[in-house]
Specification:
Elements lengths: L4 E3 L1 H9 L3 H8 L6 E4 H13 L4 H13 L1 E3 L3 H16 L6 H12 L3 E4 L3 H8 L4 E4 L1
Parallel strand pairs: 1-2, 1-4, 2-3, 4-5
Helix pairs in contact: 1-4, 5-6
């Protein structure tokens, strides 16, 4: 199986803005289907769009992203991984937002590399080696 990259909400936001040419160029080097997003990320993006009054430019940008990337569903396996993941991290004194914990657990559950610009995930990867992380 080829490597999959699960893109965090902040990376998808940068893609939607369309101004980060280095990020966009990096994405074009990936074969179709290797960059995916979590249904949790989609929920965060939808929340942000609704809070901003659904600006047409951003709605169109999200539509374009969704045409090119699969959205992975949150399922029972991911939920099980999430419970274990949270307990392990909390025992180490690491607490992220619920959404960040859900996205990180999703990456672990589907054996994908989490791509983020949130450096808080680095402390998670240091404690839980099952989380593969790249900062783009």
């Amino acid at each position: 199986m080829s490597q999959h990259y699960l893109l965090d909400t902040n990376v998808i936001s940068h893609i939607m803005q369309g101004r980060d040419t280095e990020l966009l160029a990096r994405l074009t080097t990936l074969p179709i289907g290797q960059a995916v997003l979590s249904s949790v990320t989609l929920a965060e993006l939808e929340d942000g769009l609704h809070r901003k009054g659904q600006p047409p430019r951003l709605r169109n940008a999200l539509t374009q992203v969704l045409l090119r990337m699969d959205v992975l569903p949150w399922d029972e396996d991911v939920a099980t991984c999430y419970g274990e993941f949270c307990a392990t991290l909390e025992a180490q004194g690491i607490n992220l937002s619920d959404f960040d914990m859900m996205i990180a657990a999703h990456a672990v559950a589907v054996d994908a590399t989490l791509v983020s610009r949130d450096k808080a995930f680095a402390q998670v990867a240091g404690v839980n080696p099952r989380l593969k992380l790249e900062i783009w």
